[in-house]
Every structure is written in structure tokens, then in C-alpha cells.
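HOLO CASE FILE
Compound: iron/sulfur cluster
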Amino acid sequence: MDDNHPTAPKKAFVKSYGCQMNVYDATRMEELLAAEGYVTSETAEDADLVIFNTCHIREKAAEKIYSELGKLRVLKTEKQMRGGEMKIAVAGCVAQAEGAQILKREKIVDLVFGPQTYHRLPDMLKENRRTGRPVIETEFPAEDKFDALIAKAPRKSTQVAAFLTIQEGCDKFCSFCVVPYTRGAEFSRIPRQIIDEAQKLADQGVVELTLLGQNVNAYRGDNSSLAALVAELSKIESIKRLRYTTSHPRDMSDDLIEAHATNGKLMPYLHLPVQSGSDAILKAMNRGHDAEHYLRLIERVRATRPDMAISGDFIVGFPGETEADFDATLAIVREVGYASAYSFKYSERPGTPAAERDDQVPEEVKSERLYRLQALLNQQLQNFNAACVDQTLPVLIEKQGRNAGQMIGRSPYLQSVHADLPETSLGKIVLLKITKTMTNSLTGEYPGDSA
Ligand code: 5AD
Ligand code: SF4
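Model generated. C-alpha cells follow.
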């Protein structure tokens, strides 16, 4: 059995749920573990260490983790009976929010740590081994996590497109949202550190960077704005594309809007959540702006960059939402015309002000509204994709497709594009003529191909 082989490297399986920042964090955990001699495992079954990097944003996401843990209980016991081990860690936002409660519900867990402490993972593993007891780390330590990460493990990427966290946390306290409690207060990394990380990624072949932050456009590292940071990053020759997500309508500054006109590396895609089209609901959500403010922003962005693809997040069934409020959401969607969108039923989150309200919307009403909203958004997505047919778009080729000879890339508007291309196209930006649309992707042809 592999379990007992004295020289076999230990295997770690890291699974991420939720947002892109969790994906970034999970990659950093893998790097930390690689520095400790672990290799990455593709499945939990044969791993010596399983880490669930969890999401607390909605109840469903948070509950999923307990069913995953339940599945592992048998595996862990079996493995222990064979003399092997399987350490189980719950990381991320559920860990931050629930802490020791996780251990009460699921005794097989060895480590619980939040998004601000994962750089201590190797130490936590050592402590667990030394004491034989579960380790919980959910403080917001004063030290800079990012400094510690740089010191402990180098950034590695074999990808064409990579995420880079530049800002974390949120001070906005929308009344439905757990993020200010799980990710903590707004914090921006300093530009020097970000530029170094971007340069390392570029040296490893990364061509596209997506700058991540819960409020990315509120970025203020060393008093630099996001627009100034983007300008600096675009000086890195081999980085050809820059994106950023997620933005808040209150932080969409003039210089950032302007950068979309002047900086050719900044992609014409903006994820700008509005959540609702009703002023009364926006106020109750504590969003700090009304529908009109949002619409004027979109207008200005499109005046700067007419082909800008707009993406958004929506919540239906926020407490007190009437049919008229919901109609206002449909109306703003019609007015904007989205290229992509994420929409959710409101989910009561413990500790948030909206969860305390006694005018919660019944589940059936939420479901029915979500259905109608998604039908509209889906229609818009199809329209946006259909409008790309016959256009020639620059597509960054990111990976091989499932079929032989097929490659998959992304358009400037973040659409997935399939095309028959040689493997040597990997990492290149290829001009492809879009020939048709599928549900979630486009098909492109290299114009030179057509015989
Ligand atoms: N219920 C439903 N959706 C939520 N979101 C955040 N909190 C909740 C909640 N309590 C959605 C918002 C946000 C996205 C990341 O998740 O739309 O923009
Ligand atoms: Fe949550 Fe609002 Fe902050 Fe976004 S801006 S992370 S929705 S509190």
C-alpha cells in the first residue's frame, strides 16, 4: 500500500468552492504544501491531506461542506485502519464564520483556518501532529499574510491566464452579505508586491492577469488607484491582457473608466453588480447608490468603450421585496443588456442585518422570480453571443479542447471559444472568425483554415 511507503511523497487534495479569490487562495495553499514536499492529488480518496476551501456566501454553499465531510468520514476511518492517515482541513469563509462549531458537527476535522491565516498551514500541520489535537486558527493576525506567503513559497503557474489578489475584504456592509465578517476589513496590497508577483507570473508564461478583490476598484495600495496600478502592470511586455473583478458601483472612478479607452491591454469586460433595480431595495441593502447612479455609470463606460460587455450579480427575494420592486430589477436588466450575469435567491446569513428582518419573502416567490429573471438574462446572453457571429475576435488560447486538434481560448468579452488549431497556438492571441454559438461557448475558425 502506498499509505505506508516510507519514501512516497505525501499527497494533498485542495478543493475550492465559491469565488475566484478562493481559487487564488487554494493555489497558494498548494504552493505552500509543495514547499513542504507534498504533491498535488486529483482526488480526495488517495490524499494524505484534504483541504476544503469553503464559501459562506449563501446557505447552500455553506451546507455543501458538511455533506462533503460526511462522505470523507468512511474513507478516513478505512485509511486509519490500514495504518495510513488522512488529515482533513476546513479552510476559507465557512471556517472563519463557524470556527470551533465545525469540530462539534464533524469530528473527523483536524484543521480549521480562515482566509487570513492560511499562510500558517505548514505550522498548523506540525502543531496538529505534535499535539494530536485539532487546530483552529480564525484570528485576523496583524502580520501581512502576503509577505508571509512570498517568504514561504514562490508563486508558480503553468497557466496562460492567472488570478492575482490585489485587494481583500470589504467595508461596505451590504445588509445581506457575510463578506465583511469572513474576509475582514478592506486591505490593499502595495503596488511593488503586486508588480513583482505579476512579473514572476509573466516569466512563467502567464499572458492574462485577472486582478482580484472583493471591492477591487476601491484598491488604494500606497495611495495608488486601480487605474494607476493597471497602467504599471501593462508595462510588463508579455502580459497582453488585464482584467479586474469584482467592482462596486460606488468606486467606479473617472480614471478607471478612462483607462478602458486608452489602455489596449485592459479588456472590454466589466463585472459591476447592481443586485436590484429598485431604489427602495437598494437602500435597504445599504448599497449606497440608486438605480439611476448605476445606469449613468454604464452609460459613461459605454461612451468610453462602446463594445464593453457588462456583467452583474442579482439577488431576488431580498426581505420586503414586492412585485413592483422585482419589476424594477427586470427593467434595469432590460435597460443595461447584460453579456453575462449571476443571479441568486436571497439567502439569510447569520449575523447580517437583513437576516433579522421579519418580512422575509417566501421560498416559492423567490424561486418564481429567479426563474423569470434568469430567463431574461439568459436571453440577453444568447443575444450577446449571437451578435459575435461573423465577427473576427482576438482569442487568447488557454488550453487543449476535448477533441483532438481542438483548442479552447477566451474572447476579449470572456466568452469561451473553441477552434481547430495546432497545439503551438497555446498562449497566443489568435484572430478567429466566429462561426456559431453554442449554449456556453462560441466556435471560431482560423481564417487561414478555410480551404
Ligand atoms: N444571498 C444571496 N446572494 C448573496 N450574495 C451575497 N450575499 C448573498 C446572500 N445573502 C450574492 C451577491 C454578490 C454575490 C457574490 O453573491 O449578488 O454580489
Ligand atoms: Fe458583500 Fe456588499 Fe462588500 Fe460586495 S460590497 S462583498 S456584496 S458587503
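CASE NOTES: The two ends are 55 Å apart (CA to CA). Residues 170, 172-174, 177, 179-180, 214-215, 248 surround iron/sulfur cluster (ligand 2) (CB under 6 Å).
CLOSED: yes
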